[in-house]
Every structure is written in structure tokens, then in C-alpha cells.
Amino acid sequence: MVAVLVFLLSLSAVAAILFKFAKADGDFTLLSKGPAKRKAVEGKVVWITGASRGIGEVLATQFAALGAKLILSARNKEELERVKNEITSKYPAAGVEVLPLDLSSGEEVLKKSVQEAESLFSDAGVDFMIHNAAFERPKKRALEETEEGTEVTFRVNVLGTITLTRLLAPYMLDRGKGHFVVMSSAAGKTPAPGQALYSASKHALNGYFHTLRSELCQKGIEVTVICPGPIQTEKSSGGSEKRVPSERCCELTIVAATHGLKEAWISYQPVLLVMYLVQYTPTVGYWLMDKVGANRIDAAAKKGNAYGWDLLFKKKKST
């Protein structure tokens, strides 16, 4: 009788975990942390690239709500000014500076941008560097990509981001503290059929920044890598997949950063499940992605659901 009771309790516990996982929008460690720690960012200088729209704009607004001082960067100065005005109208006490930036502009230009960022807010220096800017090409097959497309993608997503990090990190090391928050992608953890270059660039970022943390963590430098799946922003177009709202993605990103997580995953199912499978049972995870690969490209071409369970059961048509 006792054994049956134990079995039923165990079964109930497993069922509860599976139900929670089915409804989750992030990994279990992330969701266990509770709200963001305001004291971790209040009064701190947060520099955000790609801040003129989408996730970058929402992150800026949420950091301002927590009392952070903001440096907003992107290529479009007018849009940055719009974001600044919207934030200061909502949070009049917020300190917001605009610093136009093109990650593909080369080391000398980026060096001047870092020097300017460090001089803002009475030379306070940058506490959090949010690497959010990214270039994403329309979905296409890996063998259809060109050398030009590869160079453009890597120049922004990888080379520019790494160069900016390399130039900023010495200032943080001098102060003995600093935090890089990297907006990577689920495509940086799993195969992403139709997004070979984007996936490759995000895998590169993951490798670089996890290694950077291992080298500098004992010198006060923190790194948090965020891997979102499909996120709903104003740029989202086509497709019928369920996407995590950008506000929720940014909320969880700040939770991960302020709790010092090394990596966090943000997505609904089935992407979250695939990430777990590839991480912990790679043979199964890669088999699953091989099953859906061609169907995902077809679905994307038709602006259908490129993340749904039904991709497993469709007959492969892509060539």
C-alpha cells in the first residue's frame, strides 16, 4: 500500500512538472528566480545597441523603469531620439543619452564610440553592455547563401559585437566590474533550417562570450547569454506561430541579468523542448531537427508556422 502511494505521488509530481513545462515560456532555472532585482541596475549605466525599435526599445523602457541610466545606440538617430523622448515622458527622472552607432563601421569608429559612452553621466562608465543589435536575413536554404550575405551577417552579428566588447572590456576591468548581456537566439543552440547564416553567427557569439566569461569572471566581469525563440515584435511578419511577447522576453532578460545567470532560454513550445533535447540528449534533438528541416523551409516560404508540431508529420517537399 505504501509503495502504491509513493508511486501515485511520484506520478502526480511528474505530471505537474510536465504540465508546467508545457506552459513554460523559459527554462526552469530562469523561471525560478522571481522578479528582477532593482538594486542591481538602479543608478547603473546601461548601454543598449539596437535600441531604436523592437526588443532594444522595450529593454530600454524596462531598464528605465528600474532606475537605470541609459545609453541608446543604433544607426537611426531620429528613431533613437523618439525612443528617448518616449522614455523621458514616461519616466521624467530617467537619464537617457543617444549615441548613434553602426557596428559595421570598423574598429577606429567603434573605439571613439566606446570613449564617448564611457564619458557620459560624469564619466561614470558603462556597467551593463546589452548586445542586442543583429542582422537577420530572409529565410533561405544554406546553399543559397552568398559570400556577400555571409560577410554582412558576420560583420554586424559577430565581428562588430566582438570588437565593441574588446574595446569596452578594459574599462570594466579597470573598475573591477562590468556585465555583458548578449541577445543571442535559440538558433545559437539548435539547428535552424532556413537560417544557416543567422544560426552560425549566434553560435559564434555563444562560443565567444561563454569563453570570455570563463577568462574574466574572477576579475569582476559577468556575462549573461540570452537565447530567445520566436518573439513578437513590430517586425514580426507572416507565420502563424505563437510568439513570446517582446515585453515578456525583455522582462525575463532583465531577470536573468540581475540574478547573474550565465545563460537563459526564452520560448514557448516546441522550441523550448528542442533546446532541452539538443542540450541534454543531442542525438535525439538533432534527429528531431532533421525530421523537420525541409518542412520548416517550406513553411517559411509560404509564411506558415515555421515552429509548429505539425512540421514533424508533413511529407518533405523541399529540394
Cα separation of the termini? 58 Å
Count of domain modules: 1
Radius of gyration: 21 Å
| Class from secondary-structure proportions | alpha/beta
| SSE pattern, N- to C-terminal | HHHEHEHEHEHEHEEEHEHH
Overall outline: globular
Corresponding CATH superfamily? NAD(P)-binding Rossmann-like Domain
Give the rounded overall mean pLDDT. 91
CATH class: Alpha Beta
| Helical content (DSSP H or I, runs of 4+) | 40-55%
**Number of helical regions:** 11
The biggest beta sheet reads: 7 strands, parallel
The strand line-up of the biggest sheet is 3-2-1-4-5-6-9
Proportion of residues in extended strands: 5-15%
Q: Tally of extended strands?
A: 9
Q: Any low-confidence stretches, pLDDT <50, length ≥5?
A: none
CATH architecture: 3-Layer(aba) Sandwich
CATH fold naming: Rossmann fold
